[in-house]
Amino acid sequence: MKRYIITGAPxxxxxxxxxxxxxxxxxxxxxxxRRIIISEQQKNSNKTPWEDVSxxxxxxxQQTIKELHTPIHQHAFVDRGLAxxxxxxxLKKQPVSDEFLDFDYQKFYHKTVxxxxxxxxxxxxxxxxxxxxxxxxxxxxxxxxTYNDLGFTILEIxxxxxxxxxxxxxxxxx
Length: 174
Hints:
Residues 3-165 form the NadR/Ttd14 AAA domain. The chain is an alpha/beta fold.
């Protein structure tokens, strides 16, 4: 079994959707990035996407690889895929390491990626989401390019209620 990626810029409803999928009996993996940001903030470390994005993505890579080796026996969903790091590095004009470029994404992830588009009406910032709406737009474009370049099929999740978004995902599963 492979994991379905749910991705998009910050504050597009990914985590709400992941939580709802879990409540509906699906296997989910919470966002590694947010957990690492919180941990690094608690340690007063600069390994965050807005300070040391290279150090941050190394931590995300290590933790994600561990989680990808967790066996799954049914459809599973991840809040962001490993390839999101490529877009974050590009956003900050940092080199993308071979560990991201040479990774066998198709081995672990389903070919279909669910993409939550920017939605100004629900966009908020918090202590782990410091990006402006404009920066989120740039990241959204980089995410789309990254997943297209890696050969994924992108399905855009409609801007609608959580239950309708769930229905969209459930009817799209292969």
